[in-house]
Amino acid sequence: MYLVTILGNLFIMLTISSDSHLHTPMYFFLFNLSLADIGFTSTTVPKMLMDIHTHRGVISYTGCLIQLSFYSLFGCLDSLILTVMAYDRFLAICHPLHYPVIMNPQLCGLLVLLSLIISLLDSQLHCVMVLKLMFSSDVEIPHFFCDPSKLLKLACSDTSFSKILFCFIVVIFGGVPVSLITFSYIQIVSSILRVPTSGVKYKAFTTCGSHLSAVCLFYGSSIGLCLSSVYSHSPRKSAAASVVYMLVTPMLNPFIYSLRNRDIKIALERVLKRTS
Predict the structure, then answer these.
(1) What gap in Å lies between CA 50 and CA 141, rounded to an integer?
(2) Are 184 and 89 in contact (CB under 8 A)?
(3) CA 160, CA 205: separation in Å to the nearest integer?
(4) Which of 231, 253, 258, 226 is nearest to 242 (CA)?
């Protein structure tokens, strides 16, 4: 599954970069989404595979902080790029005449850079949250990576500040992107429903289909992970939810965008023809 995730996302990135027809804002954001997916899975899965192979699930305090930082960074970057892609679809469907002027290369680069800066802030806040905690010398984390919610439960010091900070992070860095995506799609659906031609409606819905599938998969699995952490006391169930969130979602994204996207299919055929 990890190899399929890496190869699938690399293939999407190769296809977009090698085909000039795909040098558009939508595929520029898809390129960065694939890059974020590779980073997201590579933060935890290689360590998990090594632990399974060596039968040693050991990580240092510094290593745990580094893993937590990159996990938060790429997870937040995934969420923000999906939000930017929703904004891109909103402009393309609701304001098609202004779209080429508004969504210029400078704005596209600025949106990705802003997403990266916000993700770095989220990562640093997670580190601050964990640094405020005190642990015993030998702690057993009932998980295959340094999950911040699990670390909060294992702390032997006062966790009130860290819990407030954790809630703030979830509300701001999770709730705001979801609200923006929901608002964008409400505007998109209302705009499509006002179009009298059924063919145009179908084309518009098809354009948003891949992105909407990726959004539902990403946020559906993340909500499932949060619920399993709060309501389930079984480490196995929590780990299973984490695997879906960290591995299954990034693995399926290349298939969602390649199987449901005509432009990607045509570009893949061009790449394969050139290769052969």
Answers:
(1) 17
(2) yes
(3) 46
(4) 226
Greatest pairwise CA separation for the chain in angstroms: 67
**What tokens does 34 get?**
């694939």
pLDDT over 70 (residue 174): yes
pLDDT at 117 over 90: yes
Task: State the DSSP string of 197-211.
Answer: -HHHHHHHHHHHHHH
Q: What is the mean pLDDT of residues 42-46?
A: 91
Whole-angstrom Cα distance, residue 232 to residue 58?
Answer: 24
Could you report the per-residue pLDDT of 235-264, keeping only the tens digit for each? 677 777 788 888 888 898 888 887 667 777
Question: Is 195 in contact with 201 (CB distance < 8 Å)?
Answer: yes
| Rounded Cα distance, 203 and 207, in Å | 6
Which of the 8 DSSP states describes residue 248? I
Q: How many helices (H) and strands (E) does the chain have?
A: 12, 0
Q: How far apart are the first and last CA of the chain?
A: 27
Pick the more confident residue, 87 or 143: 87
Residue 52: closest CA among 86, 102, 2: 2
Amino acid at the residue 130:
V
pLDDT at 94: 87
CA atoms within 13 A on the CB side of 228: 20
d(CA 227, CA 253): 23
- CATH number listed for the domain at residues 2-275: 1.20.1070.10
Instruction: Name the pTM for this structure.
Output: 0.89
pLDDT of residue 200: 66
Instruction: Provide the residue ranges of all domains of the chain, joining segments of one domain with +.
Output: 2-275
The type of residue at 72 is S
